[in-house]
Design a protein that fits this description.
The chain contains 5 helices and 6 strands. The protein is α+β, with helices and mostly antiparallel strands and 150 residues long. It has one domain. A hairpin with a 2-residue loop joins strand 4 and strand 5. InterPro entries: Papain-like_cys_pep_sf, Transglutaminase-like.
Length: 150
Amino acid sequence: MRDEISHSFDRNSSVVTISASETMKEKDGICFAKAHLLAALLRGMGIPTGFCYQRVTRKGTPESGYALHGLNAVYLDGKWIRLDPRGNKPGIASEFSVTNEKLAYPIREELDEVDYPYVYSAPLKNVIAAMLQSENCQALFYNRPSRIER
């Protein structure tokens, strides 16, 4: 799923997919949509799956602004293990491992990036709202929430 469903920003896609079925049909979605699809697939196989988030810079610098990045966690062997459905590209590599976490975005605390330690049972409402309110992926790039509001 990670490698068969393209990341919309990598393709300069205009379509905004949200649900698992839309993402599967279009074979395209940003991290949030890909996380929705992965959660649906894993839950369908009986694997407890949740949603996780990171606050990362949009283009690698604080001046470019911040946005949430979506990923998943699975409950295996009595603990939550995170996995990142984003997909690889030059400079970004994630792999699933039960021993060593390797996510798409290593957090750089010195740049005010945040690795939120929560596992949610459903996607965040403000993430879904941003996706619904964006007419295309170019708008969604800037409309994504910049942090989790608690």
